[in-house]
Amino acid sequence: xxxxDKELCIGCGICEDQCAFAALEVVDGVAExxxxxxxxxxxxxxxxxxxxxxxxxxxxxxxxxxxWSGVWVFCEFRKAVLAPVSLELLGIGRKLADSRGVNLGAxxxxxxxxxxxxxxxxxxxxxxxKVDHPDFEVFTEDRYGKILTRLINENRPEIxxxxxxxxxxxFIPGVATTLDAGLTxxxxxxxxxxxxxxxxxxxxxxxxxxMATIECPRSRPQMATxxxxxxxxxxxxxxxxGEVVEVSPKDEELQSRVxxxxxxxxxxxxxxxxxxxxxxxxxxxxxxxxxxxxxxKLADVLDADxxxxxxxxxxxxxxxxxxxxxxxxTVAPKLYIACGISGAVQHVAGMQSAEAIVAINRDExxxxxxxxxxxxxxxxxxxxxxxxxxxxxxxxx
Length: 397
Ligand SMILES: Cc1cc2nc3c(=O)[nH]c(=O)nc-3n(C[C@H](O)[C@H](O)[C@H](O)COP(=O)(O)OP(=O)(O)OC[C@H]3O[C@@H](n4cnc5c(N)ncnc54)[C@H](O)[C@@H]3O)c2cc1C
Fold this sequence. Notes:
binds flavin-adenine dinucleotide; Alpha-Beta Plaits; Rossmann fold; single chain
């Protein structure tokens, strides 16, 4: 709770001005806190006479911050395949660990993990905690959560990163809650503040209109999830040395309240635009569902996959797995061709890491041209058929 010492308070009103939630008011020369207070602590920092203090009862106010050391990455392994985001997280994890001068740990949980654990060392890990047990063949939140929580409690890493994938999103928040730790979801940037080791976690906020940097300075570990394709993996280096620690699950960690009866892949989910080298993306400029026929033709000629803006997914012209952007997928293909897409911030957030961006739009002021490497101003119904004809001609030649 927020405590205001009436003897020390001079009624200057600086706290009132500082409070973003209008929760403080100076009444009769003394500050008073109202119901809107979120315990953010901004007023504590600006109060010169130190009349305001924050007492977070029962919260994870760690007084032993220095005893938490190391950066950890949860590496997702399912159906004998390592999720590519794991390597991307090892890439950023290595940078964070180096800037803190600490070890980079990786945790891999699954069945038949085999040499994948050793490979993680080549991608940047110093220590790999390998949990390899038949009961981890299928993912269940409670089993994964219990063992990861135990490993974190035993080893006390200061930072824990995980992919913002279906699996990461479903069990990492539970781990953070059990540990009473802060968690920032869907980060697009991570840095360490060298003075105090605070993890600066940047992510879009307020519908993608601002980038917010979040820190959890008083709790450990500092936990963040990161979307696939946002960070860059390191080149594999087989000369790197590290240690693989075999971890045996305890009996209670294998207990689960969930039985998985069957696992079915949704038909429309077969496309994985995050793995594509070339994406032809259609927006509302296609005018209707039929417009995607043109997009598919261009995609066929270029051996590409089809992506889309949210406007056309919402309109039902193409299913959700094709959506690029803040509430869709983040993609980083070699080539992204945006056809009839205006370039709203929420769309750009999901494709700006593409190596080359081509935009076709009849509005020369469309914001998509701000991020495009090549822009074609004109009607896509005229331009795309010409492009297809030219490409086919080149292919034949
Ligand atoms: C919280 C939130 C999350 C969101 N998440 C996403 C997201 O994940 N992904 C996403 O895409 N959007 C997202 N949006 C929506 C986003 O703000 C835009 O509304 C959306 O991206 C617009 O889609 P569009 O570019 O296809 O359509 P429009 O903005 O309508 O643009 C159509 C473009 O086509 C051009 N055009 C029209 N006819 C032709 C033609 N014949 N030839 C060439 N050009 C033509 C027009 O000039 C125009 O620039 C989100 C919004 C919010 C509030």
